[in-house]
Amino acid sequence: MTDVLRVEDLFITYQTSAGGVPAVRGVDLAVKKGEVLGLAGESGCGKSTIAGAILRLLPATTEVKGTITLDGENILGMKPGRLRAVRWTGASIIFQGAMHALNPVQRVGDQIAEAIVVHQQAGEKEAQIRVGSLLEQVGLPTRRMQDYPHELSGGQKQRVMIAMALACSPSLVIADEPTTALDVMVQAQVLRLMKELQRDLGLSMIFITHDLSVLVETSDRLAIMYAGKIVEEGPAEAVFHEPKHPYTSALAAAFPEIGDMRFRGNPTGLGGDPPDPQEIPSGCPFHPRCPVAFADCERTVPGLYSAGEDRRAACLLMEDAKSGVETRG
Amino acid sequence: MNATDAAATPGGGLPKGAPILEVEDLHVTFQGRVGLIAGLRGQKGTLSRAVDGVNLQVRKGEVLAIAGESGCGKTTTARAIMGLQAVDGGTIKYEGKPLPRNLKPYLRKVQMVFQDPTDTLNPRQTIYEIIAEGLRIHGIDRGPNGEPEEQLVARALSHAGLRPPDRFFLRYPHELSGGQRQRVVIAGALVLDPEIIVADEPVSNLDASVRGEILQLLMKLREELDLTIVIVTHDLGLAWTVADRVAVMYLGRIVEIGPTEEVLLRPLHPYTRALLDVVPEAGGLDRPILTGEPPDPTRVPPGCRFHPRCPVVVTGKAAGLGIEAACKGEDLGLEEIKPGQFAACHASRQLGAEAALAALAEVEAAVAPEPISQGSWSSDDQQGDPDTSPEG
Amino acid sequence: MSTAQRDPAREATPELPTSHKALTRKRRKDSLRRVWKQYRQNRMGIAGLAILLFFVGIAIFAPLLASRCDLSPICHPDNPALSPPSAEFWFGTDSQARSVLSLTIWGARVSLIVGLAATLITVFIGATIGLVAGYYGGWRETVLMRLTDWFLVIPFLPLAIVLAVILKPSLYTVIFVIGITSWPSTARVIRAQVLSLKTRGYVEHSRALGSGDVHLVARHILPNVGPLIFANTILIVAIAILTETTLSFLGLGPDPTANISWGTILEQAFGQGAAYSGYWWWIIPPGVAIVLLVLSFTMIGYALDDVLNPKLRSR
Question: Model-level pTM?
Answer without folding.
Answer: 0.80
